[in-house]
Amino acid sequence: MSELNCDELLGQIRYLSLEEQARLLEELVILVHARIKAWPRRSVLEFEGIGKEAWEGIDVEQYINEERNSWE
């Protein structure tokens, strides 16, 4: 099978009937949904500790208070 890029595929899809386009859309939704479900689930906890070096030497309480004061 020759490889087609997205623009070439869209060009061919435009020639399909409305019913064929609707069927194609349904099939694509099923295909994409199956691929998404196959992705491993990730946890926000994987980010724990990321960027902690950015806070070294900073008084967190002082930083928070300065931010809150800037809102007023």
Helix/strand order, N-terminal first: HHH
Major sheet characteristics: none
Strand content: under 5%
Query: Uncertain spans, ≥5 residues at pLDDT below 50?
Result: none
Mean pLDDT: 91
The tally of strands reads: 0
Task: Indicate the structural class.
Answer: mainly alpha
Rg over CA atoms: 25 Å
Q: Percent range for helical residues? A: 55-70%
Specify the overall morphology: elongated
Please, how many helices?
3
Distance between the termini: 64 Å
How would you describe the overall organization of this protein?
This protein is mainly alpha-helical. The protein has 3 helices and no strands. The protein is elongated and about 65 Å long. The mean pLDDT is 91.
What does this entry show, briefly?
The protein has 72 residues and is an all-alpha fold. It has a domain at 6-38. Helix content is 56%, strand content 0%.
